[in-house]
Amino acid sequence: MPTFVKNRVFIPGLLFFLICSLLIPATGSKAAAPISVAEAIANNSGEATVSGYIVAHTAASNSYDFEAPFGNDFNIALADSPNERDNAKLLPVQLPASYRAEFGLQTNPDIIGSKVQVTGNLEPYFTVPGLKSPSALMFIEEGEPTPQAAAPVSSVTPGAVTSGTEIILTTETENSAIYYTIDGSDPTEDSTRYAGPIQITKDTTIKAVVIADGLKNSEITSFAYYIALTGLDIHDIQGSSHYSPYENQYVADVEGVVTYVADANNVYIQSITPDKNPSTSEGILVYKRNHGLSSGDAVKVSGQVKEWVLEGYAEKLETDLPVTEINATAITVTAAGQALPKPVEISPLKGQPTRIIDNDQFKSFDPWQDGIDYYESLEGMLVKVAKPKVIAPQDYGELYVVSKYTLLNTLAGGLRISENDYNPERLIIDIDDSSFVTKTGDSFTGDITGVVSYGFSNYKIFSDRDSLPDLKEGGLKQEKTKFREHSKKLTVASYNVENFSPKTGAEKTMKLAKAIAENLNQPDIVGLTEVQDNDGATNSGNTDASASYQALIDKIKELGGPTYAYTDIAPNNNEDGGAPGANIRVGFLYNPERVSLVDAPKGTANEATAYEDGKLTLNPGRIDPENDAFSESRKPLAAQFTFNGDDVIVIANHFNSKGGDLPLFGKTQPAVLSSEEQRIQIAGIVNQFIKDIQSQDKNANIIALGDMNDFEFTETLTTLKGKEMTNMIDLIPSIDRYTYAYQGNLQVLDHILVSKKLTLRTAVDIVHINAAFMEEHGRASDHDPVLIQTMLK
Fold first, then answer.
1. What is the pLDDT of residues 212-261, one digit of tens each?
2. Distance of CA 609 to CAs 202, 531, 641, 648, 692, Å?
3. What dihedral do alpha carbons 510, 513, 517, 522 form, nearest 10°?
4. Angle (CA) 749 751 757, round 5°
5. Looking at the structure, do residues 205 and 312 belong to the same domain, yes or no?
6. Does some domain include residue 520?
7. Does residue 710 sit within a domain?
8. pTM of the model as a whole
9. Residue that is last in its domain, among 181, 198, 227
10. Which distant-in-sequence residues (6+ apart) come within 8 Å of 435 by Cβ?
11. SS3 string of 685-736?
């Protein structure tokens, strides 16, 4: 359903193929005569000969190149018209090596527009209906076609019907006869001749052909009918479960009123005869191409009940929950302009769970306790949220809100996660408008209404941007630290600058420099993460980031800050994760007027530093960089500085990301966090490095900082701390403890740890300038920086 998709990857062709293939049975053996491209798409299975025009080269799923140059000789795309440009009407055809010299478009771009005939297997190709493994392929000359009889037409749309339905077959060809079969074989003159209505009393596929003297036989047309269940309401179909008890069965004359039109092919309806069971939803999604419905239409729907993952990345088909829908074969409008059902209010005062997502691995359906079951019990239904409070900035056209009756747990007006509470009460309002500007702490002056659905790993409420009430400014402002330069105190910051290079633009450079010069008040040392090389995400082989650092240094100086120096170790090309060619790394800015690097050789990407005789052997140097635990992740960087005659070792970290973890609201409960294992290993390596230093000098000053990609209460941070370090984040009051927002949840990913002896001499501050804001508010990164000020003795 393409209109559901914002700036993300989706596979609408696959959805269309799956639905069509379920509603229209495949032809069996090789077709008696060439079929059209449209027929090959509609009946995409079995062997067939297809006639059509070469119109394009298939670049990717639903992506075609219609003009030279073409990327390769591996495929062609056919259409029934040489001028066709509608992706849905194109058939990608695989070209084995034996056909590429003659039919490959890279080699033969001038064959665009030529007519060909190809025999092969009809099956999905590039996730859409296609043709693979051709056994014959030839050009055919244009000429006067042999007149062909018009194909037979059925009086009843194929699909779900009630027992006893009569099928009348007709054709526009005069003086012709219709022959048909119901046993799956192709009809011929030896088959049953149609003489009157065919009564359907069981699942039946009628295959019919029109034969007339002097004409080519019509195409064989299939009409598949399925005896449907009748007398069911929407709540019966939804049931008290995440999966319909009628999945894959056919239903007829399901009544409802249209509550929300998602797009030309998808519409939500709600029952006009609700039951009294709050566990069963009264709403359902209906899929029918070009349905033509409007809000307020009363309808009767017939079709097949399916469970579909509506929208998401391809891998989400394995991780996400499906939505119950009716793949409609027929929709009858019985009235227009009907009143919509009263929206169900979502609120903690109305039974919305506020602590538990799921605690029984789906063993019990208990929407009064589990958030994942609660939203399923409302799937497809019209709901409202009373004067919502905004808990995080808009992202991908989604608003993150809670009811006005929901208690918040941060000073900013958001919801922070804790070890046992990932905030099931947060709501996602999908308005499909990424230009809407809002931030944490704002609120709406009226109620928001919409329908509950699911996509991209979350339940969400579809609502129209134009129907939103007015937004009230909450007054949240970007912060400035209270720390000031002090002759005896060292100030150290940790800042994830979110894929920064000179190529990210002057505005981002300005915002980051302003944050360091003004909001952080010019720290003595800044541990940076996600610094890209000089040409950013260009896979050139370059790994040097000197221009990236210099752009930031120059802008900080321009804004009145000190002239920082920098140090880092460039990674091996494409070995540390991140965007290909970007070579993100950790590194340091430091003010040479306040601190200096202890003299020692600088390490290389593959060299490991150690601590001997009070010094790092390589400065800066990487910690055990060839350890398998750091595969496809950043290697920690240790640097030894001198401040007022005292040494301090600062370790910059950027642990592996959470990519690959299962979603909080996915179909596996509890969510499996597979990426955590690597972070725990990395944390153990860094902690052992700290132990090695303290075994030689128990009074050594050590600071470990960076984006750990994990929360303060996780095993990752427990391992990193050990008995040697204090995570200063733990000392920040919970109401102010967050550095990042993800899908409406405020959380800590960025940490600063200090050796135990420094704890009582160290103050900490999270400077909230990014996580709760959008770029329109001055945001420069997706992480808030963390800052400490400490006395080394």
1. 987 889 999 999 999 999 999 999 999 999 999 999 999 999 999 999 99
2. 76, 21, 15, 15, 12
3. 180
4. 160
5. no
6. yes
7. yes
8. 0.79
9. 227
10. none
11. HHHHHHHHHHHHCCCCCEEEEEECCCCCCCHHHHHHHCCCEEEHHHHCCHHH
